[in-house]
């Protein structure tokens, strides 16, 4: 059975910027790393209430950092208080991802 490596977008990173982020203002993220994977060139934005579901958006390069290990890579993100969402990468590749994360029942400001 294959193991998977994961880079996790910490909810705290987004919640700290939630109060001060202007609408559609993209902010830089540090490079996030875990065994065999890294998330580089990351940016995120917080969407105000009633705009794009009031969640957050992020874009980054998801890199399989140990291409010979046979493991897949993925990133997980979530809105505070709700379940994690998983976004898959590809083995032996760098994939550019751009996603919006929200829960339709919640409005974050």
Outline: elongated
Uncertain segments: 1-21
The number of distinct β-strands equals: 8
Element pattern in H and E: EHEEEEEEE
Q: What is the mean predicted local confidence, pLDDT?
A: 76
Q: Main sheet, how many strands, which sense, barrel? A: 5 strands, antiparallel
Number of helices: 1
Percentage of helical residues? under 10%
Strand % is 35-45%
Structure, briefly:
This protein is mainly β. The protein contains one helix and eight strands. The protein is elongated, with a radius of gyration of 14 Å.
Please characterize this protein's 3D structure.
The protein contains one helix and eight strands; from the N terminus they run E-H-E-E-E-E-E-E-E. The protein is mostly beta strands. Strands 2, 3, 4, 5 and 8 form a five-stranded antiparallel beta sheet that branches. Strands 1-6-7 form a three-stranded mixed beta sheet, with no helix packed on it. The longest helix has 8 residues, at 11-18.
